[in-house]
Amino acid sequence: MEKDIGKKAKRKRRFVTKLVSPPKVTRNFDIKELLENSKGSIGELLVNIFKKLYDHFGPQNWWPGDTRLEVCIGAILTQNTSWKNVARAIENLKKRNLLTIDALYNIDQAYLADIIRPAGYFNIKAKRLKSFISVIFEDFESNLDKLFSLGLDDARRKLLDIKGIGPETADSILLYAGGLPTFVVDAYTKRILIRHNIIDEDSSYEDIRYLFMDYLPPDIELFNEYHALLVSLGKYFCKKKRPLCTSCPLKGI
């Protein structure tokens, strides 16, 4: 028999979660316009890479999730696991009607860990998820819009202050849930750029993030699609072991 949602349910404060759909890419990209608004030869190179990937893979329709909160949860749970496992954990939350900030704030952490078990590292992730939810509940009255309305830099600092939320997770939340123009960097991105001699192996997360943000226009849909396309390239061609260089869409870049 499932546990009760725990002692915190007795707290007096209670906010209504505003369920808002996450932003999606809805346009075709004008490459000429992107080139005109990019900076220098590096910007031109990045636009050309985007074009090749978009021509090969097409729209990626990221991020999976029906609401902004679901996107945030997915960004936290996807650390060190596959999306298939994350989807199972989120489905478990949906079945129990727990995909609201109020419900997640009041639920017992141990019970939450059991529910998200398919995502792996479930005790750690339950703690991180509770920390994130507590900030949204207590500091922003359960309203994600109030977090995102701080603007990119302040909202990012707020997220990075939460234990267990690193740059990649924070940027995923800000871009895919908040619709703010930040670029998400992951292991695929770094590997691809290193192999094409665009960055050095010792380049930091922020070095790579600013490479895209400094030389490309601050276009939310571009950053959304670009990151998703790099993930597809890394998964299917630019693999960690035995990369498929001869058939890579970026061959010749």
Q: What would you call the shape?
A: globular
Task: Tell me the CATH topology of the largest domain.
Answer: Endonuclease III, domain 1
Tally of distinct domains:
2
Q: Strand-residue fraction?
A: under 5%
CATH class of the largest domain: Mainly Alpha
Secondary-structure arrangement, i.e. CATH architecture of the largest domain: Orthogonal Bundle
pLDDT averaged residue by residue: 91
- Report the count of strand segments: 0
The termini sit apart by 58 Å
Structural class designation: mainly alpha
Instruction: Determine the number of helices (DSSP H or I, runs of at least 4 residues).
Output: 13
Instruction: List low-pLDDT spans.
Output: 1-18
Major β-sheet profile: none
